[in-house]
């Protein structure tokens, strides 16, 4: 693409871009991984009566953290346990199940997946005896991507992945009310981070498991993202009265904090990528371009931002090339 004039103006605009909201207070200490034993060191932290989160590292995939960078969870309903996502490997799923069984006497009765990404469902082998649920779009995406996910995580994570084979959901679930035992939930389905992003809200405690729609103190992942649809979904999510928010990646926090961070980042990315594309910048120039300091302090920087550019910037270049030019 031919470079237009105004490069110095573009740099100034980027340098003055909107900063993200302040960092969220540090989450509870991450799991103490034992590499020799391939032990994830999973711990359950109570968020409300009968509601637990199992926090992963706020980091990028690596053998040092067992590729455990996801927050999973489980809820005792009085009629059995609902498990929210099962982690990145068979070994994780087995250790998660053992943790649940040490924490509550209720049997596991259902697994729920919030989107199609691998660390949401590659632990499913440990839950083969219970219904495993996801939306129709998520189920189709998992079936399409499962082999590539296995290959990629085996490459990234090594021995942690031994014995892991994708076990796909067995039942379809959609948005609306969900009742298990004495507990009532609300399921909301949006899109933008992926083509189907589920949010689970426990009506009794107002704890919300928001999946990948919200990131906290971490650069968002974007392999299936559409930033403008994602921003529209965040606007709708912001209208809900939530209490404790459990993102899949980053610290658990009070309502609004992670949402504001994610929205600020996507607004900056959508606007800046568009301006750089209009100015004729290539991908290497974008990677060297200025990014607000607050974003560069988040977990998984710069690796995840590099992937953001690879995933998304070509779309902005195509849009700029296709836009009619002023005479």
TrEMBL record:
It comes from the Bacteria. InterPro entries: Metallo-B-lactamas, NDM-1-like, RibonucZ/Hydroxyglut_hydro, SoxH-rel_PQQ_1. Residues 69-249 form the Metallo-beta-lactamase domain. The keyword Ribonucleoprotein does not apply. Residues 1-26 form the signal peptide. Keywords: Signal. CDD domains: metallo-hydrolase-like_MBL-fold. Belongs to the metallo-beta-lactamase superfamily. Class-B beta-lactamase family. This is Quinoprotein relay system zinc metallohydrolase 1. It comes from Pseudaquabacterium inlustre.
